[in-house]
Design goal:
40% of the residues lie in helices and 19% in strands. It has 13 helices and 18 strands. The longest helix has 22 residues.
Length: 423
């Protein structure tokens, strides 16, 4: 099928997602505990946007003309990789479905999609819409199941030509091992993070507080990009802590279908207990609980948004990904010191810098080893903005035109040129 026709079908697919936004919002909220109001705008809206972005790219995938040094002419073809194995996480089921499916479709691949066993509902509904949009049978195949069975089958299958995975670093290792033991299929990984949010003393305190709250408690902290290490320059620390404590008094945890609610429940009991165990670790290691620190209510997997002060860099809560509503506050004095602290992690997914000094901002963005650095903003995601990490946060991109690369193979074609008047 030509790219222009793929693009037309993808546009229709996006229309169907928007037309059924209410049902999809309900599925995501029921499945993952996401607040309904935000889910409709962010999760479902982003899904349709991603489809349209890559629909526009489907007929713009070009090779190159090669300037050969002898009597040959050459060009490159960018061919579909073939069968793509797409394994998506439970924290953003709809968004991550189309982060992978949309560029794979644009590139001309077929795919086997395994949603997380905790949140499979929206992926099944998306498969239904694909059929209605005119995606041919066999192009998008959604397989529900568990990681050690369905996920492992995809990663080790000899007829799967590449795998794109989003999830934990531990499982990312297993997928790379499975690839190595099978057909050496290329792998793209978007894994864990322990991102720093660095706030300098010249920053607007209100903006800094707003950004730290959204960077840590959006999606109840179940975000690989969460900035759970908040570094505050000494001159702003006390003012920031006071304003943050005041702001958190109005934060509402509860039923995700209640429009007043800011934070729903953790995705399941396992994640709920894991987050609480990290909170207990923080208390035992000597960190001070500014807000939260315990379950919220008598029923459900609700946790109070927790802010720790007096956190040290060697504490477990400052080193390991928690994936829950937990913020760690730490002090610094100089630019050099905070650069070292920010990079002192095995992860490299994202970072945030809050300052009014452009020279400081420029130095920080060039010094931090991360896939994305936001200045005076956070979670500023867009279909045209590359998304992916470094170090143990993985490799490969899940947005922008760069996302097409993992679904395309480059082939060189060379033929001799006889009696050409020029070379």
């Amino acid at each position: 099928m030509p790219g222009s026709e793929r693009g037309r079908i993808m546009m229709k697919y996006a229309d169907l997602v928007e037309q059924h936004a209410e049902e999809l919002t309900l599925l995501e909220s029921l499945d993952a505990g996401k607040p309904r109001t935000v889910t409709r705008v962010v999760d479902i809206g982003t899904s349709a946007t991603s489809l349209r972005y890559f629909a526009g790219a489907a007929d713009k995938i070009h090779g190159e003309t090669l300037k050969m040094s002898t009597q040959f002419q050459g060009h490159t073809l960018r061919e579909p990789m073939g069968v793509a194995g797409l394994i998506i996480p439970w924290n953003f089921p709809a968004i991550m479905f189309f982060c992978k499916v949309a560029p794979a479709l644009a590139a001309g691949c077929t795919m086997v999609v395994k949603p997380a066993e905790q949140t499979p509902l929206s992926a099944l509904y998306f498969a239904h819409f694909a059929k209605q949009a005119g995606v041919p049978d066999g192009v998008i195949n959604v397989i529900t199941g568990f990681g050690p069975t369905a996920g492992a089958a995809i990663a080790s299958h000899m007829d799967v030509d590449m795998v794109s995975f989003t999830g934990s670093t531990a499982v990312g290792r297993l997928i790379m091992e499975a690839s190595a033991r099978s057909n050496l299929k290329p792998v793209s990984l978007e894994l864990g993070g322990k991102s720093p949010l660095i706030i300098f003393e010249d920053a607007d305190v209100d903006l800094a507080v707003d950004l730290s709250i959204s960077a840590n408690f959006f999606n109840k902290g179940e975000a690989c990009l969460a900035a759970s290490r908040v570094y505050l320059q000494e001159g702003i620390y006390d003012r920031f802590v006071k304003k943050l404590a005041d702001r958190m008094e109005s934060w509402v945890v509860g039923d995700p279908f209640d429009p007043r609610v800011n934070q729903g429940p953790q995705v399941n009991k396992e994640q709920y207990e894991k987050v609480l165990s990290y909170i207990d670790h923080g208390k035992r290691e000597g960190a001070n609980v500014l807000t939260g620190g315990k379950p919220c209510g008598q029923r459900g997997y609700y946790i109070e948004p927790t802010v720790f002060t007096e956190v040290k860099d060697d504490m477990i809560i400052a080193k390991e990904e928690i994936f829950g509503p937990v913020m760690c506050l730490m002090k610094f004095r100089t630019v050099e010191e905070v650069i070292a602290k920010a990079n002192d992690t095995r992860y490299g997914l994202a970072a945030g810098v809050v300052t009014k000094d452009i020279d400081v901002a420029n130095r920080m963005t060039r010094s931090i080893r991360a896939g994305v650095v936001w200045v005076n903003c956070y979670f500023a995601m867009d279909a045209d903005c590359p998304f992916g990490g470094r170090k143990m946060s993985g490799f490969g991109k899940d947005a922008s035109m760069h996302a097409l690369d993992k679904f395309l193979a480059v082939k060189a074609v060379v033929t001799p040129v006889y009696d050409s008047p020029w070379l």
